[in-house]
Structure formats: C-alpha cells, structure tokens
Amino acid sequence: MTVKTPPWLVSAGKAAVLDGVACDFQRFERQMPYGVIKTSPEVLASCEDCNGYDKNYACPPHSPRLEEYVGNCTEVLVISVKLLLAPFSGDTPQARYHNCFDGARELLLKELYKWREKGKLVGGSGPCIGCGNCTLPDGEKECCTPKKRVFSLEAMGVNVIDLLQDAFEQELEWAGEGGEQVSISAIGAVFL
Fold first, then answer.
1. Maximum distance among all alpha carbons in the chain?
2. What do you get for the CA distance between the two ends of the chain, in Å?
3. Fewer Cβ close by (within 10 Å): the C or N end of the chain?
4. Whole-angstrom Cα distance, residue 19 to residue 112?
5. What are the residues whose beta carbons fall under 8 Å from the beta carbon of 103, sequence distance 6 or more?
6. From edge to edge, which strands make up the β-sheet containing 9-17?
7. Helices (H), the chain
8. pLDDT (tens digit, 9 = 90+) per residue, 19-37?
C-alpha cells in the first residue's frame, strides 16, 4: 500500500529545536484566498482566560484586529509546522506538549521572519517568542524589538482550528484532550 503525500507538504526531515532536541518535522504551505480565514469574537474572548493575557505585546489587548492589520490583503499563505511529540520531555503530559509546541513555533518563526524580510505581514501561533521573554511584565511601555514581534493569529481573532482544517485537512491536537497527542502543529500566515 502506498501512502499518498499531501500536496501541501513542502518539506520534512529532522530539525534541532530548543537547544538541541532532535525531532522529526513536516512543513505544509498553501496559498489561499484571504476570505477563507474565519474570525470570531469568541476566539478573542478566549484570550482573556489565558494566564498570558496582557503579558505579551503580541497578544490582547495589545494586538490589532486582523482586518486592521492586513488592510487590503487578498491572498494568504498558510504555513503549518508539525512535530512529533515523542522526543520531547516534561514532568507532565502538558509540559511535554508545551515543549513540543515551543519547538514547532521556533521553526515556524524562522519561516515567518523570511517572509517579513521580503516586506510581508505575518501572523503566528500563540504568544510572541521573538525575544524569548516579553518585556511587558517588566513595565516596558512598548515592545522593545518590534521587528521580532509576531502577532498571534488567535489574538487577532483567527479560528486556527478551522484554518488548519480548511488549508490542510488536518485536525489540531490540543493538550488536555485526555490521552496524549502524537504530534503538535504551529500555524502561521503570510498576508499577500
């Protein structure tokens, strides 16, 4: 039996993330009409329940609404980086999940920065990790490295569950769904 390779798979292999964790990865990309992106007030409201709310300059209440951010964008390049959970360690299943997610976001961020260097607007997964630790909790009045800041898609109201399904026909695996995940995805977008 042959396994059909998804048409959106652009690269796969091994990568070192988080100071040397060797892991298998897959990177998917698909250019789509901007109109496929679904936003909702419920996604924004879920940010208020996050323990990182108002602690990162790329998250609410400091993030723009998607429509304000992208302006007259007509196309979007959706990027997903998927890592296998197996090589990541942690004291609990959720800690392993978060370590793997951080690794996926690290690889995603490298891709998003390449597009930003070409003058494109980008959005990432979860709170910005451009600096490592955001200076907002330290009392800084604004982002100290705006060229590294990547606004969270969720913080701009994007339903990333639907985006992953619409772009790549994949289900997003979350920590805490009872049972351990096999892989973790980080989703980003380049606005064209």
1. 58
2. 39
3. N
4. 20
5. 17, 18, 21, 23, 83, 88
6. 9-17, 21-33, 75-84, 183-191, 121-123
7. 41-48, 66-70, 93-117, 160-168
8. 788 889 999 999 999 999 9
